[in-house]
Amino acid sequence: MTKDTTDMDIDWMMMVIPAIDYEDLRRIVWEGAQRNGFAYSATPDYSGKNNRRSVAVGDEDGTLVAFTHLEGSGFINISFHSGCMLPTHTYDLDTPYKQLPLPSVEEMFPNLRIVDAFDENSNLNPELSSQSGPQSGTQSGS
């Protein structure tokens, strides 16, 4: 943390979700970026021992949400980097970092539906598999 009142960078990491297919993740993030007018970037080539690939969205103020798909580990790491400057009249810059009032996940992502990863029997929630959840397109049947 800096005492320079002209700039402050707040950063926290490590929200983890079970992995979905990278192309599904890329498509979902791209559609959200397009719908909300955010910049979008993707790193489609594997890197590292966990076959890491990433997708990110950001705004003109430098705020960035990055989704790192770790195929080798079976999960996606979501990181948030704030490019905002805190209003100096509201916050005391001498307050320790952990005491700054940060937004909740619901405030940051109001359209995100949060579900439990496991049920009461420690079984993986079937809604988290890539085969479940709302399907796009037309389906036929009898």
UniProtKB/TrEMBL annotation:
<dbReference type="Pfam" id="PF16145">
    <property type="entry name" value="DUF4853"/>
</dbReference>
<feature type="region of interest" description="Disordered">
    <location>
        <begin position="123"/>
        <end position="142"/>
    </location>
</feature>
<feature type="compositionally biased region" description="Low complexity">
    <location>
        <begin position="129"/>
        <end position="142"/>
    </location>
</feature>
<dbReference type="InterPro" id="IPR032326">
    <property type="entry name" value="DUF4853"/>
</dbReference>
<protein>
    <submittedName>
        <fullName>Uncharacterized protein</fullName>
    </submittedName>
</protein>
